[in-house]
């Protein structure tokens, strides 16, 4: 199955590699015509300001939003979470606005405060997930249809709403592919 | 337990910058222009490299006031430069909260034998390199990101091309060697065996590898991507051009779409004059910044 990886900037190769290892066919998305035939989309970590700007510049915003609203599953990590949020604190305008959540950008501080830790994500199994937080956002509040998948020190750091999932941290920087497998299950209609 | 300053966290930060453009800025106003143009980070400086060249004398860490102003002005990461071997400048930058430190040959070296032990820091470092041996020595000291040195402040791409081509050729050579040959190759390169072995297995550097030094046009940025760079630093090239906003946007787009030549043609139209360059043959040996570093 073809899975798009938004490749404007950021850690897109790492996502593509992980999806490929799981048997999916990753497609790098830089322009609207790259969206043809994809069954799911991953929005990687990077700089959300930059990615949001380039989404508009390359006219990807409208088609991606349309495809997602028509049922295409989307998985966002870190900057991807910010790009998917309906509300961004301190910003007048959201980007794709797919998920009914409010995010707080860089809520864990600057780079020197970035960290890695073990996280419980019951949805994908008992084994803790090694989560890498880099200038990471967190979710301040969620709407009714949003399920919290993980929290860290009381802050929401992973969520699911229908076919959309988003994490504050970077599963693509680890060797643990369970969240990507979980996403592919959503695409396949198994979850 | 949460761990800060690990290799994964420090190298991961650079991975988030891939495919992007990091721009030199000397004020909050320039930082905002860079951010609006789509830069993934800014390098806060007192002077851009071409002005450092022009000014002569000893070039040092920027005034913290400038760095703090830039940090307040933008939400993208802020980097800053310290002198090679200047542990205290680096500690000061870390205390200010910059997101990345460039231990840079653009400034006058503070130590003529040793670089900073970057493993001792929580904040990640980027360092310049002309070849694979130099890159691996910096990584051994704890650098989490490498960039070519090029010849900063010249607007002349030839040295950055030379450095990136050499590094990629050396990586391919090591990748194709048998393991028996790696110890001797490590000796030739002046690099730790463990890192040479890692390059042999990965077929690339174990950290992100950007291009820097002399990038002045969208086509220059795309050329460096074509040669295998993970992203680009643009120093004097933007704010020494006739139209910084236009140049900044065009260089960002050319970096993302580096193989879309029609787009690059379109981006290159009517940009105005790029920074005035320097023919490297006119530089005296002591004016070359790339040779600084050990």
TrEMBL record, chain A:
InterPro entries: Class_I_gatase-like (IPR029062), PdxT/SNO (IPR002161), PdxT/SNO_CS (IPR021196). One of its GO terms (biological process) is pyridoxal phosphate biosynthetic process. One of its GO terms (cellular component) is cytosol. L-glutamine binds at residues 46-48, 105, 134-135. Coiled coil: none annotated. It catalyses: L-glutamine + H2O = L-glutamate + NH4(+); aldehydo-D-ribose 5-phosphate + D-glyceraldehyde 3-phosphate + L-glutamine = pyridoxal 5'-phosphate + L-glutamate + phosphate + 3 H2O + H(+). Keywords: Glutamine amidotransferase, Hydrolase, Lyase, Pyridoxal phosphate. The active site is at 78 (nucleophile), 170 (charge relay system), 172 (charge relay system). Transmembrane segments: none annotated. HAMAP family: PdxT. Belongs to the glutaminase PdxT/SNO family. This is Pyridoxal 5'-phosphate synthase subunit PdxT. It comes from Alicyclobacillus macrosporangiidus. The gene is pdxT.
TrEMBL record, chain B:
CDD domains: pdxS (cd04727). D-glyceraldehyde 3-phosphate binds at residue 165. It catalyses: aldehydo-D-ribose 5-phosphate + D-glyceraldehyde 3-phosphate + L-glutamine = pyridoxal 5'-phosphate + L-glutamate + phosphate + 3 H2O + H(+). InterPro entries: Aldolase_TIM, PdxS/SNZ, PdxS/SNZ_N, RibuloseP-bd_barrel. Residues 8-212 form the PdxS/SNZ N-terminal domain. D-ribose 5-phosphate binds at residues 24, 153, 214, 235-236. Keywords: Lyase, Pyridoxal phosphate, Schiff base. Its EC number is 4.3.3.6. It is an enzyme of class 4 (lyase). Pfam families: SOR_SNZ (PF01680). The keyword Nucleotidyltransferase does not apply. The active site is at residue 81. Pathway: Cofactor biosynthesis; pyridoxal 5'-phosphate biosynthesis. GO terms for molecular function: pyridoxal 5'-phosphate synthase (glutamine hydrolysing) activity. One of its GO terms (biological process) is amino acid metabolic process. Catalyzes the formation of pyridoxal 5'-phosphate from ribose 5-phosphate (RBP), glyceraldehyde 3-phosphate (G3P) and ammonia. The ammonia is provided by the PdxT subunit. Can also use ribulose 5-phosphate and dihydroxyacetone phosphate as substrates, resulting from enzyme-catalyzed isomerization of RBP and G3P, respectively. Belongs to the PdxS/SNZ family. Homohexamer and homododecamer. In the presence of PdxT, forms a dodecamer of heterodimers. This is Pyridoxal 5'-phosphate synthase subunit PdxS. The gene is pdxS.
């Amino acid at each position: 199955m073809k899975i798009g990886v938004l490749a404007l900037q950021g850690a897109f190769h790492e996502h593509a590699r992980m999806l490929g290892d799981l048997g999916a066919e990753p497609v790098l998305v830089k322009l609207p015509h790259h969206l043809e035939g994809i069954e799911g989309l991953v929005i990687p970590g990077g700089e959300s300001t930059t990615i949001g700007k380039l989404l508009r510049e390359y006219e990807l915003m409208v088609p991606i939003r349309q495809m997602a609203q028509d049922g295409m599953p989307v998985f966002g990590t870190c900057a991807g979470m910010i790009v998917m949020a309906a509300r961004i604190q301190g910003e007048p305008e959201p980007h794709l606005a797919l998920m009914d959540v409010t995010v707080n950008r860089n809520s864990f501080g600057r780079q020197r405060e970035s960290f890695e830790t073990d996280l419980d994500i019951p949805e994908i199994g008992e084994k803790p997930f090694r989560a890498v937080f880099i200038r990471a956002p967190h979710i301040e509040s969620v709407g009714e249809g949003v399920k919290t998948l993980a929290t860290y020190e009381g802050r929401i750091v992973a969520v699911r709403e229908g076919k959309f999932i988003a994490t504050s941290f970077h599963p693509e920087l680890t060797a643990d592919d369970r969240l990507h497998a979980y996403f592919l299950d959503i695409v396949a209609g198994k979850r | 337990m949460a761990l800060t300053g690990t290799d994964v966290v420090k190298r991961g930060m650079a991975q988030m910058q891939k495919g992007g453009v990091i721009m030199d800025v000397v004020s909050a106003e320039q930082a905002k222009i860079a951010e609006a143009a789509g830069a993934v980070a800014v390098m806060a400086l007192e002077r851009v490299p071409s002005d450092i060249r022009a000014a002569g004398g000893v070039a040092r860490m920027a005034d913290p006031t400038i760095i703090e102003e830039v940090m307040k002005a933008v939400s993208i990461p802020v980097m800053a430069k310290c002198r090679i071997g200047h542990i205290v400048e680096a500690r000061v930058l870390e205390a200010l909260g910059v997101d990345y430190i460039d231990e840079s040959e653009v400034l006058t070296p503070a130590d003529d034998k040793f670089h900073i032990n970057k493993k001792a820091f929580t904040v990640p470092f980027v360092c310049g390199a002309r070849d694979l041996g130099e890159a691996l020595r910096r990584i051994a000291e704890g650098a989490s990101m490498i960039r070519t040195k090029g010849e900063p402040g010249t607007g002349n791409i030839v040295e950055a091309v030379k450095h990136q081509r050499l590094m990629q050729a050396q990586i391919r050579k090591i990748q194709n060697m048998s393991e028996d040959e790696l110890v001797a190759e490590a000796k030739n390169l002046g690099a730790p065996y463990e890192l040479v072995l890692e390059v042999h297995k990965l077929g690339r550097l174990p950290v992100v590898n950007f291009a820097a030094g002399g990038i002045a046009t969208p086509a220059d940025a795309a050329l460096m991507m074509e040669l295998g760079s993970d992203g680009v630093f643009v120093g004097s090239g933007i704010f020494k051009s006739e139209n910084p906003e236009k140049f900044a946007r065009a260089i960002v787009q050319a970096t993302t779409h580096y193989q879309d030549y029609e787009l690059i043609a379109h981006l290159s139209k009517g940009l105005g004059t790029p920074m005035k360059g320097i023919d490297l043959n006119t530089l005296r040996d002591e004016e070359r910044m790339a040779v600084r570093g050990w």
